[in-house]
Design a protein that fits this description.
This protein is an alpha/beta fold and 272 residues long. It contains 11 helices and 8 strands. The protein binds 3-methyl-2-oxobutanoic acid (KIV).
Length: 272
């Protein structure tokens, strides 16, 4: 079955705005390479996020902090070679935008110029507003990211649900309004109470994309390797697993090993 949003030939930030107005949900997934990005795009995904979760999923780091701008550009370029229809958003990695807004603009320009991506995503609210402003003033669309912001793991100390206390929830709402006023085209809300995500979604005119933020948001995002069951070590409550690819791939590799060892592979038809 084709997704409802297949009626849009090309997804742009304006289409996402239109989808919010029409109450059509936005489907976003991460991808970091050409092959998976092609599958996602052919399946009709609306937004491909080249997330800095590549640091965990592709490189095996325990946090998103080590990934570099050059590495993000490499992943984003591979994705861009595959995607025809989806909007491609790329995370600005840790350390490339928090220090000063000139550096933030330089980092965003490098991503747009060298990968050909459509937009960048930045974690944080008021603290990074100057960077958001400067990037936006160069005509680069920006997606915000509030709630659990994994690049601040050393400040939080844990990956538990955020903004359960009144003060943090109020700050998150203020930050969402600031990002909207600045001109961001959407905001990711990560791991916050469903009630708060609903309130924020009703409060701002730009789309909210939730991950662990309940159903009352304008769209959902998951990390591809988690939802396909490639990565089995990560099992938060919000994660729905659509496949058990880890077991399936392991089974195929074991069958191949057996076939090679028993000289069953290659057979008559598999040689010249
Ligand atoms: O890096 C990432 O994959 C993300 C999503 C979890 C939203 O930021």
């Amino acid at each position: 079955m084709q997704s409802e949003s297949r009626k849009y030939a090309k997804i742009t930030t304006h289409v996402l705005q239109e989808m919010k107005l029409k109450g059509e949900k936005i489907a976003m997934l991460t991808a970091y390479d050409y092959s998976f990005a092609a599958i996602l795009d052919e399946a009709g995904i609306d937004v491909v996020l080249v997330g800095d979760s590549a640091s965990n999923v592709m490189a095996g780091h325990t946090t998103t902090l080590p990934i570099t701008l050059d590495q993000m550009i490499y992943h984003a370029s591979s994705v861009m070679r595959a995607v025809r229809r989806a909007l491609v958003v790329v995370d600005l990695p840790f350390g490339t935008y928090q220090g000063n807004s000139k550096e933030a603009l330089h980092s965003a320009i490098r991503i747009m110029k060298e990968s050909g991506a459509n937009a960048v995503k930045i974690e944080g609210g008021k603290e990074i507003l100057e960077s958001v402003d400067r990037i936006l003033s160069a005509g680069i669309p920006v997606m915000g990211h509030l709630g659990l912001t994994p690049q601040s793991i050393n400040k939080f100390g844990t990956y538990i649900v955020r903004a359960t206390e009144e003060a943090e929830a109020e700050k998150l709402k203020r930050d969402a309004s600031l990002l909207e006023e600045a001109g961001c085209f959407a905001i990711v809300l990560e791991k916050i109470p469903a009630k708060l995500a609903k309130e924020v979604t009703g409060m701002i005119r730009i789309p909210t994309i939730g991950i662990g933020a309940g159903p009352h948001v304008d769209g959902q995002v998951l990390v591809l390797h988690d939802m396909l069951g490639i990565n089995q070590k990560f099992s938060p409550r919000f994660l729905r697993r659509y496949h058990n690819l880890n077991e399936e791939i392991k089974g195929s590799v074991q069958a191949y090993i057996d076939d090679v060892k028993s000289v069953d592979f290659p057979n008559e038809r598999e040689q010249y």
